[in-house]
Design a protein that fits this description.
- There is one protein chain.
- The protein is of the alpha/beta class and 458 residues long.
- The protein contains 19 helices and 14 strands.
- It has helices at residues 2-5, 16-26, 42-52, 67-75, 88-118, 126-138, 155-164, 183-191, 208-211, 227-239, 265-270, 276-282, 299-314, 323-331, 337-351, 364-375, 406-424, 429-435, 440-449; strands at 31-34, 58-62, 80-83, 145-148, 173-177, 192-193, 205-206, 216-220, 241-243, 250-252, 256-261, 285-288, 320-321, 356-357.
- The strands form five sheets. A five-stranded parallel beta sheet has the order 5-8-11-4-12. A three-stranded parallel beta sheet has the order 1-2-3, sandwiched between helices. Strands 6-7 form a two-stranded antiparallel ribbon.
- Mean pLDDT is 86; it is low at 375-401.
- It binds adenosine-5'-triphosphate and magnesium ion.
- Adenosine-5'-triphosphate (ATP) binds next to helix 7, helix 13 and helix 15.
């Protein structure tokens, strides 16, 4: 009566056994459980309950003065206890606290699940499995990892996964976008500065390396660092210490470095844009994250994953993707890789009114690309997709190259020309090189650059 008066719903049970069945049927938010009962006693009911649902809060009711049993009950996982005779006040206050607490931990659990799914690396293709194996092997170490791959393939996600699975997981993960920081600020960003060390330095600033002490620093877009910054970063990596601008003191830092780039650093070295010594420092464990077109098998799973996440984030009803639509999505050449796929799925989830996404609902670029593949096997230009820098790693399959920029068109044309000439010369590299009048080494480089492999059936 007290509980009902307070606005709670109350369901009673006459014995331990009856209680267990009632609880499974009613799914209550909390249980008040007497210890001394005929038949199954409270302690046994408690054990059985927790075997079913560990998170269900149980408050024990003990007879006057049976302290030992009460202690045992708390040890077995009861959240609190009442002694008979029950005091109205205490029952209400305790119950309110217990419910509040369990609501909080439920929220926590949900958040944790949401976070986990945010960082989940979805996919089971052989190409991705290779990446995951390298992640597993490198994560427990302090070794420097260099992540290579086109824009949007998941380099940042991999970097975070390595950190989360390393002994440094409890410490910070500091991300530095080397391309986004203006040249004149990069030193103070990375190494910090003292107040008044330069015009505009009105406050002291702790640099990224210092912030990452005992944790991980993620140097993103390392291929875009200026020469000057490269020299500075190399020094920190060698010495494991930094100096704030305007301070003569050196500070020891213990950081694990993960670097990433979508540039071909070896080419950048040849062009004199990237320091070779820095490259060797960073390239201890290289992990190449393959483009989505080399792991199309993963697309349906990724679509489901992003659809589910979008539905949760935006409070939308879940949607089905019709097999034909899924097919088109799986065949499309995702030049913006997983990021482009994710954005597309998000848009579809929000903009499609029906419960199912059909081919007709797909954006025209994607549908039309499909049509042109079906009509002809000749390269058909597709409109430029977002997030595809002209310097991204070149394409590696025989799909229409979708040349959006001049550079992409040239690459696609060069690739097609080389494949044609190689075919004419039965894939004899020396001969082909001679005929097209280029050094053999250059031809090898091109084959690698474009991922051209000899066709097995000619
Ligand atoms: N295997 C995957 N499973 C689920 N989500 C993924 C996967 N790979 C990438 N993503 C998601 O795709 C998006 C792009 O990934 P991320 O930012 O890690 O790419 P990136 O390689 O760092 O790209 P950029 O070079 O443009 O910075 C992110 O939202 C990421 O969570
Ligand atoms: Mg990134």
């Amino acid at each position: 009566m007290i509980l009902e008066y307070e606005g709670y719903q109350f369901v009673g049970a006459v014995s331990g056994q009856d209680g267990l069945t009632t609880i499974q049927r009613e799914r209550p938010d909390a249980v008040l459980l007497d210890i001394k009962m005929p038949g199954m006693d409270g302690m046994e009911v408690l054990r059985k309950l927790h075997a079913l649902d560990e998170s269900l809060p149980v408050i024990m009711i003990s007879g006057h003065g049976s302290t030992a049993t009460t202690v045992e009950a708390i040890k077995s996982g009861a959240v609190d206890y009442f002694e008979k005779p029950l005091s109205t006040e205490r029952v209400i206050v305790t119950l309110r606290n217990v419910l509040k607490q369990s609501e909080l931990s439920a929220e926590n659990r949900d958040l944790k699940v949401a976070m986990e799914s945010r960082y989940e690396i979805v996919g089971q293709s052989p190409a991705l499995r290779g990446v995951l194996e390298s992640v597993q092997r490198s994560a427990p170490t302090n070794a420097t990892v260099l992540l290579l791959g086109e824009s949007g393939v998941g380099k940042e996600l991999v970097a975070r996964t390595i950190h989360r699975n390393s002994p440094r997981a409890g410490q910070r993960f500091i991300q530095v976008n080397c391309a986004a920081i203006p040249e004149e600020l990069i030193e103070s960003e990375l190494f910090g500065h003292e107040k008044g060390s330069f015009t505009g330095a009105t406050e002291k600033q702790v640099g990224k390396f210092e912030q990452a002490d005992r944790g991980t620093i993620f140097l993103d877009e390392v291929g875009d660092m200026s020469q000057k910054t490269q020299a500075k970063v190399l020094r920190v990596l060698q010495e494991q210490e930094v100096e704030r601008l305007g301070s003569a003191r050196t500070i020891k830092v213990d950081v694990r470095v993960i670097a990433a780039t979508n540039k071909n650093l070896e080419e950048a070295i040849e062009r004199g844009e990237f320091r070779e010594d820095l490259y060797f420092r960073l390239n201890v464990i290289p992990i190449v994250v393959p483009p989505l077109r080399d792991r199309r098998e993963d697309i349906p799973r990724l679509v489901q994953h992003f659809a589910k996440r979008t539905a949760e984030e935006h409070n939308l009803k879940p949607k089905r993707f019709e097999p034909s639509a899924m097919d088109v999505l799986s065949r499309y050449r995702w030049r913006g890789n997983i990021r482009e796929l994710r954005n597309t799925v998000e848009r579809l989830m929000i903009m499609t009114p029906a419960d199912a996404v059909r081919v007709e609902d797909l954006p025209p670029d994607i549908r039309n690309a499909e049509a042109s593949v079906a009509r002809t096997s000749a390269p058909a230009p597709t409109p430029a997709a977002e997030n595809t820098p002209a310097n991204s790693v070149p394409k590696t399959d025989g799909q229409p190259a979708g040349a959006g920029t001049l550079r992409e068109f040239k690459d696609a044309a060069e690739r097609a020309y080389l494949v044609q000439k190689l075919r004419e010369n039965n894939w004899n590299i020396s001969k082909t090189a001679e005929i097209i009048d280029t050094p053999r080494s250059n031809l090898y480089k091109k084959l690698e650059q474009y991922g051209i492999k000899q066709e097995v059936d000619g």
